[in-house]
Amino acid sequence: MSPMSGPRGVHAAAGPPGRSSTVGPVSFKAACSDCRARFELDATALRLVIGGSRRTTFYSFTCPECGASVRKPAGERIVELLTGGGVSTLRSI
Questions:
Q1: How far is it, in rounded angstroms, from Cα 21 to Cα 49?
Q2: Which residues does 27 contact at the CB level (< 8 Å), separation at least 6?
Q3: I need a surface site. Which of 11, 68, 74, 90 has the fewest CB within 10 A?
Q4: What are the φ/ψ torsions at residue 83 (nearest 5 degrees)?
Q5: pTM of the model
Q6: Are 35 and 75 spatial neighbours (Cβ–Cβ below 8 Å)?
């Protein structure tokens, strides 16, 4: 597997680079800001909210270690990685 990485510590891992035919399941490396645990999540464990500004564009998940609800900002590259990986996306106005 070859990881793709973006700003703020989001990493997506998929199949070998350069293959556009079939891509297997994508997992995202993440970290909890409460307990500092590091783990991998699949696309169904993440939610992406795209707002009208940088302050209102973020992704969220529940930490599998401590159960905390985690919310982190999502810049353009993170939005690209998450949407490309099949993360459920909500657009707010």
A1: 28
A2: 12, 13, 40, 41, 42
A3: 90
A4: -65, -40
A5: 0.73
A6: no
